[in-house]
Structures are given as structure tokens and as C-alpha cells.
Amino acid sequence: MSLEQTFNKAASYLQTLASELNSTDLLKFYALYKQATVGTCDIPQPNWYQMKARQKWEAWKNLNDMSCDAAMITYIEELTKLSPTWEQDVESEPQKWVAVSRLLNAEEQISDTDKTFLDWIKEGHEEKVQEVLEKDQRLINLMDTDGLLPIHWAADRGHSRIIELLIKEGANVNSQDSDGQTPLHYAASCGHVDVVKYLLSIGAESIEDNDGMKPKDVADVNTLSYLLSME
């Protein structure tokens, strides 16, 4: 098996370890993935108030000029430290692994009774989202403390059915967060090709954010080619 094939399997397997990894580990793997698949970080530094984006940018930038092959090797080595038998696990249950190309979610587990509207959206729980909206439709346009609307979180997590539901209830497909980013920015940067296709099919526009970046400028390697093909 080639280095790239082994790396791709390692990246897919990482999905299964989400609950075991802390934010430091997640950022490390994110940075190595970007270095391995894109190369040296050459995108502008996010503004200071873009906390998540800045952390991801700094982790990637700190790898300096590490080669793509070296990043792949390091990624595989770090995964092997965490899970020495991961390759055997992949071979024994190949249907279980799904490719992942974004920083995994690592929110703390909370009980159902304490979950908010956004928690249900992040988890992709359509019935709960519908139930809450029936009680208060105004939540569709409620911006959270991070400056994101519900549709941004749905795009970030890749929940196209939730996006459909929010759009049906009146959400704007081109809604911009406090940084000027649209759902298409989030879906593109997180590598959700199906969500990108859906958003474009219902009228999502290639809007510049506050830093002048369009969705294609922040796109993950999995979505960039598709976005470019639509121009």
C-alpha cells in the first residue's frame, strides 16, 4: 500500500476516535491533514475574534515548510501512538470508516434535557429541531455568542436535511455570520461536498466575507474542485 493510501485510511479512521481526543490532539491532526493535502499554509491569518479559525490557522502555520510526505508520515505515526491496532481494525471492518477531512467536533456530552436548539442542530436531530421550531420560529434568526446562525452550524456539521428544514421555515441560504461568512463558506471549508451541491442548487451565492474571501478561497481540498467547476 502506498503512503497516500495508508494516510487516507488513517484520516478516515480518525473519525472513530473523536470522543477520545482532546482539542490539542484534534488541532494537531487537522494541521497535519492540511499540510499533507494542501501544503504549506498560505492563507491570511484570521481576525483575533475568529477563535476557532485562528486556532486552526496557527496549528497549520506552525508546521512551516514540512513536506506533504512528512506530514502524512507524522499523521500516521501520531495515530498509531493513540491506536496501535488501527490498521488491523480497518481491515477487519472496512465498511465502518468514513473519510474525514475537517477538524472533528469535540463538545462535551450533555444530557438531552439540557440541550438547546443549536445542540440538536449540531447533532443532526431533525425531529427535535422541528419540534423546537414549532414552538418558536424566531430561533431561525437567532445569532449565538460565536456570531453564527443555526444554518451556519448545520452547514458546518454537514446536515443537509437540517438545512432543508431551516430553509423551509424561512432561513436565508445566503445568511452571513459576524465574519461575513455564509453557509457555503462553512460547508466548503469542512469538505461537505453534498451540502455544497445542495446549497448551490437552491441559490447559494459566492459572497465575499469580511476579509474578502469567497467560499472557494477557504474550501477544503474535497470541495474546491467542485466549486471551481461551477464558475
Structure explained in plain terms:
With 231 residues, this protein is mainly alpha-helical. The chain is built from 13 helices and no strands. It has helices at 3-13, 23-37, 51-61, 68-82, 86-92, 117-123, 126-135, 150-157, 160-168, 183-189, 193-201, 215-218, 221-229. Helix 6 (117-123) runs parallel beside helix 8 (150-157). The longest helix has 15 residues, at 23-37. Mean pLDDT is 83; it is low at 94-108.
Record the SSE blueprint:
Elements: H1 3-13, H2 23-37, H3 51-61, H4 68-82, H5 86-92, H6 117-123, H7 126-135, H8 150-157, H9 160-168, H10 183-189, H11 193-201, H12 215-218, H13 221-229
Number of strands: 0
Low-confidence stretches: 94-108
- Summarize the amount of helix as a percent range: 40-55%
Shape: globular
Number of helices: 13
User: What's the gyration radius in Å?
Assistant: 18 Å
Main structural class: mainly alpha
Overall mean confidence score, pLDDT: 83
**What is the straight-line distance between the termini?**
36 Å
Largest sheet: none
Relative strand content: under 5%
Element-by-element helix/strand order = HHHHHHHHHHHHH
In short:
The chain is built from 13 helices and no strands.
Keywords for this structure?
single chain; 231 residues; mainly alpha
